[in-house]
Please model this.
Amino acid sequence: MNTELLFRTDAYQTTATAQVVAITEQGGIILDRTLFYPTGGGQPGDKGVLRLSDGRETLIATTVWEDTTHTRVVHVPIDMNALPAVGDSVEMQLDWDTRYSHMRVHTALHLLSVVLPYAVTGGSISAGEGRLDFDIPDSILDKDQITAELQALIDQDLAVTETWISDAELDANPELVKTMSVQPPRGSGQIRLINVQGVDLQPCGGTHLKRTSEIGQILITKIEKKGKLNRRVRLALV
Model:
């Protein structure tokens, strides 16, 4: 049974019920559906709580895919002695503050790739900050200028929406993929595109805001030279 990915339908949903369908050999918990985003695409896995009807709780440290097929999600508990049983119904409670911070940073990074329209060679997201690596010819990048341009986009309060295309449509439009190191998730027959109103359209499996204004204030904190062409640009929420 594949895990139903509730975060794809509504990234703002924080509670829902689910049923335990399996416990892995390592003690990971697989549910029939989940609110928890599994680690991938530079975005960390979600954490939170699984709560049984009798009040017992299993704290979730992170969430990962079971394997490379990306069909089932494993919730990794903090305490292997506090596992629910297969068949149990649980209430999922997402650690919303952490997830929302990831959403703000992730959406900001999409806009950073607009301000710096170069090939993206890597990236990562954490609570309150993130970074992208770019293939950029020798040049001087100005932190204040990038901050100002990025903040101007954020302040336009642009809508962030999603659409879906087929694998074949993506293959016919390879320019949609900005990330050289991370390919969009495939296998379901459909590819999810994140559309930032009028400025950006790219495949992405992560969680995002509904509007850019929710990002708030940002700051480009550091620009590092990581190779002849590689420039690492870091940003933080203020």
In short: The chain has a mean pLDDT of 92. The radius of gyration is 19 Å. The helical segments are 6-9, 96-115, 143-155, 167-172. Residues 36 and 46 are 5 Å apart (CA to CA).
